[in-house]
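CORE FACILITY INTAKE
Project code: CF-77B
Contact: R.S. (postdoc)
Sample description: multi-component assembly, two entities in total
Requested service: structural model of the whole complex
Turnaround: standard
Below are the sequence entries exactly as provided by the requester. Do not edit them.
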Amino acid sequence: MSRWQPNAQGRLAQAALELYSEQGFDVASAASIAARAGLTERTFFRHFADKREVLFGGADELRDFLAHKVAEAPASADALDAVVGAITAAGVLFRQDRDYYRQRQHVIYANAALKERELAKFATLSATLASRLRCRGTADPGATLAAEAGITVFRVAFERWTGDTGRGDFAEFIQSTLDELRSVICRSAC
Amino acid sequence: MSRWQPNAQGRLAQAALELYSEQGFDVASAASIAARAGLTERTFFRHFADKREVLFGGADELRDFLAHKVAEAPASADALDAVVGAITAAGVLFRQDRDYYRQRQHVIYANAALKERELAKFATLSATLASRLRCRGTADPGATLAAEAGITVFRVAFERWTGDTGRGDFAEFIQSTLDELRSVICRSAC
């Protein structure tokens, strides 16, 4: 087997999700994942530090991406615009298809420790967004509220996107979820 | 020492928070907490299953309270009204003073496992609210968004209330935080 494998990381991730779904996250081993992907365990550990990183390896990239997008938002954008611009653009980071992410959600919901890790990930994303909003001049509690609202929209839109059998792209789900949030929160007082 | 101790639970909770702050949550022992409160370790375990329950013992009560309040909201109340009514009323559950809750926040923020537990608590509260909203006729994603927005307002208002040196009551912090959320989310399109 040659050292270089075409798309080894994607194949390992797909095999891991299949085995996490079939056997449970705690039971599936790195060796069995590698075998399912037709690769060696050593190759698995060249791509992932451990079994959990298959599910959460993209978290730091997403955090840095969102932070960068908020920082580079035009000065004319208010806090919510900056956050919505960032979470909408984040769709480019979803390199697998929707079935993959739907399966990932099922694996995470089935395991208490993974659910906690997922909650911690979103809390970190929200804190990062709030921090960047403060840097560009939004005071608290506005910065925290805009960040939390943005992460809520992101999570709900992601859930709807993975569950959708049609063809809407991620950006459309962000927009329609934001519209729904506005219809829940905002009074037509005028 | 008589079996009955006036406000033993409150004294134990106060002593526990002091020791968690001074020594760290992982170091402080049930025996040292009981000694600080002038009570026995056995009395500690009559009131709390473990050290963590001192910090999170009220979580189930809060969940049931919020669920009940949403369920009994008048039919005329929309989803957000029902949630805001519930989180506003929840102020009656804060039986200690603000210093106590401020100290509790510091203890939790200083410990990764406690922070995860706190996030899980809020996720459960949000899921409970969303479920009750669906029962009274709000479809998703509206139910989830109203619940998430409500829990965000609750958390931010609680943080501001514990940090406030003035005399505003919890209900006022809920209202002003909700106003801030509206000013972040809602466009004055008219």
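Facility notes:
- Residues 35 and 41 of chain A are 8 Å apart (CA to CA).
- The first helix of chain A runs from residue 8 to 23.
Invoice: internal transfer
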